[in-house]
Write a structure and sequence with these properties.
Shape: globular
Order of helices and strands: HHHHHHHH
Helix content: over 70%
Distance between the termini: 20 Å
Number of helices: 8
Largest sheet: none
């Protein structure tokens, strides 16, 4: 569901983001921003949107002007449309697989450490399974890194109840293209 998208389009992850937010609004009502870790004032939202609208083109310009020396990197995804797709894909992941899941688990389990560590371990195992299915070898250091990332992002979400920290940590949300 977080990967429901229209193939071949740069905005392919945006429809699923809209479906997720609308479904959350229907099921959670006024609590949807809290459940999804999106508690922001109108001013914070406006400033964030303005920064995104200004910084994405600016960083893209810098990337194309001074950083990219390999023309093939554009084909690998280091260009604004791929960045927009990555942004919304990570947004979907953070809303569903971190905010909503951890919020629900915190209500079911009284121990935050369990809610932090068990999903982090499952996250690492899921990546191992996905990579193995794609015939990509993933070593134990990568598994430790994936688990550590998830545990840190889960801890930050539980502490601050906001997806921004996990979003910032996720390597795909950085202007760098496809993984």
């Amino acid at each position: 569901f977080p990967y429901l998208y229209l193939p071949g389009t740069w905005w392919r992850a945006i429809p699923s983001a809209c479906v997720i937010l609308l479904t959350g609004a229907v099921f959670f009502g006024r609590d949807a921003p809290k459940v999804f870790g999106l508690r922001m004032s109108g001013k914070e939202l406006a400033v964030s949107a303005a920064l995104f609208a200004v910084l994405l083109p600016l960083f893209s310009y810098v990337l194309f002007t001074w950083v990219i020396v390999d023309p093939l990197s554009v084909q690998r995804g280091a260009y604004p449309p791929a960045q927009i797709h990555q942004f919304f894909q990570v947004f979907n992941d953070e809303i569903l697989l971190r905010a909503a899941l951890l919020t629900i688990l915190l209500k079911a389990f009284p121990h935050p450490k369990t809610v932090i560590l068990v999903p982090a371990a499952l996250f690492a195992v899921a990546h191992h399974v996905v990579y193995r299915t794609a015939a990509i070898q993933i070593d134990w250091l990568a598994m430790v890194s994936i688990f550590s990332f998830a545990a840190i992002a889960n801890t930050l979400f539980i502490r601050y109840h906001h997806i921004g920290y996990g979003f910032a940590l996720d390597r795909k949300s950085v202007v760098q293209g496809k993984s």
